[in-house]
């Protein structure tokens, strides 16, 4: 690939959590991986965690589950948050790349709403 056709990506902005070291027990909590973007397990979005989600100003949630989990892993607050639910098989031949465009569009839409809703 020649120099002018090289892929370029913007630098990631610093995150307020950058100074914290990750510890194994934190795997059960949501982590801010970019400003305004959190990653966590299903347990981080359970009914008992509503106040934490509201305090962090969460507005959108991506729920990744297997088809067989659809009966017990469900959006807990469908009237409060926007959800993107992805049923993805947990196996090495699952083509997860096909979910990337819709997931990116969902996250980009959320982040652009956040930018416009913050006072300048």
- Helix amount: 10-25%
Continuous helix count: 2
What is the radius of gyration? 17 Å
Proportion of residues in extended strands: 15-25%
Explain this structure.
20% of the residues lie in helices and 16% in strands. With 120 residues, it is of the alpha+beta class. A two-stranded antiparallel sheet has the order 1-2. Strands 3-4 form a two-stranded parallel sheet. The chain has a single domain (31-115), classed as Alpha-Beta Complex (Protein-Tyrosine Phosphatase, Chain A).
Briefly say what this structure is.
20% of the residues lie in helices and 16% in strands. With 120 residues, it is an alpha+beta fold.
Essential attributes:
two-stranded antiparallel sheet, Protein-Tyrosine Phosphatase, Chain A, globular, 2 helices, single chain, two-stranded parallel ribbon, 120 residues, alpha+beta
């Amino acid at each position: 690939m020649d120099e002018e056709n090289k892929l370029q990506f913007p630098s990631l902005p610093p995150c307020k959590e950058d100074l914290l070291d990750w510890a194994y027990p934190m795997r059960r909590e949501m982590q801010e991986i970019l400003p305004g973007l959190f990653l966590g397990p299903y347990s981080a979005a359970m009914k008992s965690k509503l106040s934490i989600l509201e305090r962090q100003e969460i507005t959108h949630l991506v729920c990744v589950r297997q088809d067989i989990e659809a009966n017990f892993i469900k959006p807990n607050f469908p009237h409060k948050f926007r959800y993107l639910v992805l049923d993805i098989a947990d196996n090495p031949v699952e083509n997860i790349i096909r979910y990337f465009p819709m997931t990116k569009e969902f996250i980009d839409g959320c982040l652009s709403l956040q930018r416009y809703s913050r006072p300048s």
